[in-house]
Specification:
The complex is a heterodimer of chains A (322) and B (197). Chain A is an alpha+beta fold. Chain A is built from six helices and nine strands. Classes of the chains: A alpha+beta (322), B mainly alpha (197).
């Protein structure tokens, strides 16, 4: 067995045992080996299509969607997370608040001495008393100063807290605004990709074009005479793009349905609605084999398996634009 | 560009574009992806686990995993449909191993309750049905002994050595049969694979 065949065999066995997480080795050593691993991964991915499909109960999807909603709700609960640590400056500002605790008490003796009758404080005794008074005055001044400082710091802390709350609010607003902008950019990217695909389809060689015209019956006017459309089908007869105008808004409970008509019958390509004055664009990468006609009907049931409502638009002959 | 009506836009959207929207947590995109593949994945889960109820739980787990990990999908390694299939297979086999009833479920390829199929509408679904027909046609063409080892490996999650022990065959024979089956499928399903790349 040569090296290449041996590498292929090892790749197959690795893919089979490990699925998409097949380890490196031969499967990741170079581009050819990577492609080989990819090919056999896709073979595995096709195997279950041999099984008869089993439609899950509606409750499975309902349960799933409910779980998604609850997970999303819990994800968006970031706001309830613990508040961020207070910045150092705020903490430092908060520190002196503790200084507003009771100031050192003024010694009781001082006030008692203040009440000494003048006659008892005569002579030489009056001098020491005046000497003891100045530390008391200093202590009182300090107490007042500390009280003032505490009040000032307390007000500063309050102002800082208000600033922090305001910044937090602004941050959350900016965050939601940036998330909105990111979502918008992603949407634009998707639209851009979509537009590029459509442009390349419309301008591709050998594209087939057909106009969609209102369906009329002998003796009856068209249901929607102002409706028009253009259908582009790529040369591979798979990719298609359709633009429709002038369709009236759908009555409540009804839906427009697009059908591809082949020898085997009409195949639904999906349902859609219309807004007044807004053009409608539809596209897909797949068109059933043997499609010969395209039809838009107005159906009372969006799940209708075959066209049963009034025909609104029908594709005329196809023209090739080379 | 004017917006395409939501329902139609998602129905017509390809898998990668849908998954991109799932990564942005757009539930409708996940719903469309679910409608497109749930019946195939449930059939796979049921085939591995032998029980619809268990398979439905796995199906929910798989789509929750997709919801939370869509951003990690690597288009270079597999198509979206294959990614979904392999996640389902892996989850179901894990559950099977936990139950320790491997032997019960992968001995036969007989399909229970065939064709309970009321598929969601849409061109993508028609396309998937065509794929189903082609795969069935090619799987039936595989010789029985090759098909058997492939099923034991794929649906049973057995290693080559485990298959050899279970089928009482030399390991070399098991490997040869497995490799032949995979190579035949690769050639026979060339067109399908090309569409997935």
């Amino acid at each position: 067995m040569n090296d290449e065949a041996q590498a292929e065999d090892l790749t197959i066995l690795a893919v089979l045992e490990n699925g998409i997480d097949a380890p490196g080795g031969p499967a990741r050593s170079d581009e050819t080996a990577e492609m080989m691993a990819r090919l056999y991964t896709e073979v595995l991915g096709l195997v279950p299509y041999e099984l008869a499909p089993v439609v899950p109960a509606a409750s499975v999807k309902a349960g799933l969607m409910a779980r998604l909603t609850s997970e999303t709700a819990s994800d968006s609960g970031d706001e309830t997370r613990p508040a961020p640590v207070i910045p150092v400056s705020a903490a430092a500002a908060a520190e002196p608040v503790r200084a507003s605790a009771p100031a050192p008490a003024v010694p009781l003796r001082a006030s008692q001495e203040m009440r000494i009758p003048p006659r008892m404080a005569a002579g030489a005794a009056s001098r020491p008393s005046r000497q003891r008074r100045w530390p008391l005055a200093l202590a009182a001044m300090l107490a007042f100063a500390m009280l003032g400082l505490s009040l000032w710091l307390y007000s500063q802390v309050g102002a800082q807290n208000a600033t922090i709350a305001s910044l937090r609010h602004e941050l959350s607003r900016e965050r939601s605004r940036s998330e909105g902008a990111i979502a918008k950019v992603r949407q634009l990217e998707n639209d851009g990709l979509d537009l590029r695909e459509k442009f390349s389809l419309v301008t591709s060689p050998a594209v087939l074009v057909s106009t969609m015209r209102p369906v009329t019956r002998p003796g009856q006017p068209a249901a929607q005479p102002d409706a028009r459309g253009v259908l582009f089908v790529a040369a591979d007869h798979q990719h298609w793009y359709m633009t429709l105008r002038g369709l009236q808004p759908v009555p409540a409970g009804q839906a427009y349905k697009l059908w591809f008509v082949a020898d085997t019958g009409a195949v639904s390509a999906g349902s859609f609605s219309a807004q007044p004055g807004a053009p409608i664009e539809l596209s897909s990468q797949h068109m059933p084999a043997g499609t010969k006609g395209v039809l838009v009907t107005l159906e009372a049931d969006a799940q209708a398996p075959a066209p049963s409502g009034p025909e609104i638009l029908r594709a005329a002959a196809f023209y090739e634009i080379s | 560009m004017n917006p395409v009506p939501q329902t139609s836009a998602h129905e017509s959207m390809n898998d990668v574009a849908l998954l991109r929207q799932v990564a942005d947590h757009q539930a409708e995109a996940l719903s469309t992806l679910y409608d497109r593949y749930a019946s195939t994945l449930l059939a796979l889960g049921k085939r591995i686990l032998g029980s619809v109820a268990d398979a439905e739980e796995v199906l929910q787990e798989v789509f929750l995993h997709v919801w939370n990990n869509a951003g990690r999908y690597d288009a270079g390694r597999s198509s979206v449909s294959t990614w979904l299939v392999l996640i389902t297979r892996s989850r179901a086999i894990d559950r099977l191993r936990t139950r320790k009833v491997v032997e019960r479920t992968h001995e036969t390829s007989v399909q229970e309750n065939p064709v309970e199929h009321a598929s969601p509408e849409g061109v993508e679904t028609v396309f998937i049905n065509e794929r189903r027909e082609r795969v069935r046609r090619e799987m039936v063409k595989l010789p029985e002994e090759q098909r058997q080892v492939l099923e034991l490996a794929f649906y049973g999650g057995l290693s080559q050595s485990e298959i050899a022990a279970k089928a009482d065959l030399p390991l070399g024979t098991v490997k040869t049969r497995t490799l032949l089956a995979m190579k035949k499928l690769r050639n026979a399903l060339r067109d399908e694979i090309r569409q997935l790349l």
